[in-house]
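User: Sequence in, structure out. Go.
Assistant: Echoing your sequence, followed by the structure tokens.
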Amino acid sequence: MDYPEDFYTCALCPRLKAWREQVAQEKRKAYRHETYWGKPVPGFGDPEARIVMVGLAPGAHGANRTGRMFTGDASGNFLYPALFRAGLSNQPTAISRDDGLQLIDLFIAASGRCAPPDNKPTPEELRNCQKWLKFDLQRLQNRKVTLAIGAIGHEYFLRAMGWKPSQYTFKHGAEHVLPDGTVLLDSYHVSQQNTATGRLTAEMFDGVLERVKVLTSM
């Protein structure tokens, strides 16, 4: 999916612009020889997808480095093997934008497109970024199931669609039939904090993905 040039130069959130560029310059020692992306990160995947995944925001040394959502960090190391097991990707690894990864009937978007300090964008920053989530959703005409990865993905997807988040309670595994006839399915975020503590296990997430596939086929 092609994005307009002003997406990549977006400066609506001065704090996030400064942070994404600072991280790209200073780098993490393990990646000191790499060129960081350091810009807003686009969504990616199958433009005809019936499944849309909405996450939080790029990781400072993950997607802000690689330029592709959930690529190159611990969240991706959990997510992509699960997608592969579910038949939603052609390989279980995500290392870089040119590693050959293809999503199958799936598009991955996010509430925020710039890496935030401490992984915590402000509500104002997320509101500023709504236009880009709307940009994705308006083009994904075959969307049948939306998988919210975390409470923020849940909330800002609903906001982008013009629905009140207060009417749809976030809970892992919860299913919400939406006014347009599609389904919103919730999962805890695939963050290292959740997966390392066992709040979200591989078995739990596999179960969510299997439910996504059932709902997609109905």
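User: And one key feature?
Assistant: The two ends are 27 Å apart (CA to CA).
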